[in-house]
Design brief:
DNA-binding; Multidrug-efflux Transporter Regulator, Chain: A, Domain 2; 6 helices; 3% strand; MerR-type_HTH_dom; MerR family transcriptional regulator; two-stranded antiparallel sheet; DNA-bd_dom_put_sf; 2 domains; MerR_fam
């Protein structure tokens, strides 16, 4: 498939797809006229790349990890790196959950203040 179709099917801009190629995250065959042509598997690869980016991984890390994730080829060092990335994600998830819980507490407290007519501390100084 050509770059425009891949962009449409994945919701990624053509600019982003070119960037993924530059970062060695994605490969394309070139036609005689220089047009990019991608395999059908590129759709799944793009979804994986976007998930890994969303998880906070850098393009360099993604490039290092995708052979293991996609092809199942892993050295002991790569498995350790995957475990370290997973541990990083676990810590990030725990931090996000703690932040969410704090926000819930603030929201609940603000709701109670609104119901009783008591001002929030910030409103009291205004």
């Amino acid at each position: 498939m050509r770059i425009g179709e891949l962009a449409r099917r994945t919701g990624v801009t053509t600019r982003a797809l070119r960037y993924y190629e530059e970062q060695n995250l994605l490969t394309a065959e070139r036609s005689a006229s220089g047009q990019r042509h991608y395999a059908e598997t590129a759709v799944d690869r793009i979804h994986l790349i976007r998930q890994l980016y969303a998880a906070g991984l850098s393009s360099k890390t993604i490039a290092e990890l995708t052979p293991c994730v996609i092809d199942g080829k892993a050295t002991p060092e790569l498995l350790q790196r995957l475990a370290a990335e997973r541990d990083h994600l676990d810590r990030h998830i725990a931090d996000l959950a703690q932040t969410r819980d704090k926000l819930d507490s603030v929201i609940d407290g603000a709701s109670s203040n609104m119901q009783t007519g008591a001002p929030c501390p910030r409103d009291a100084s205004a």
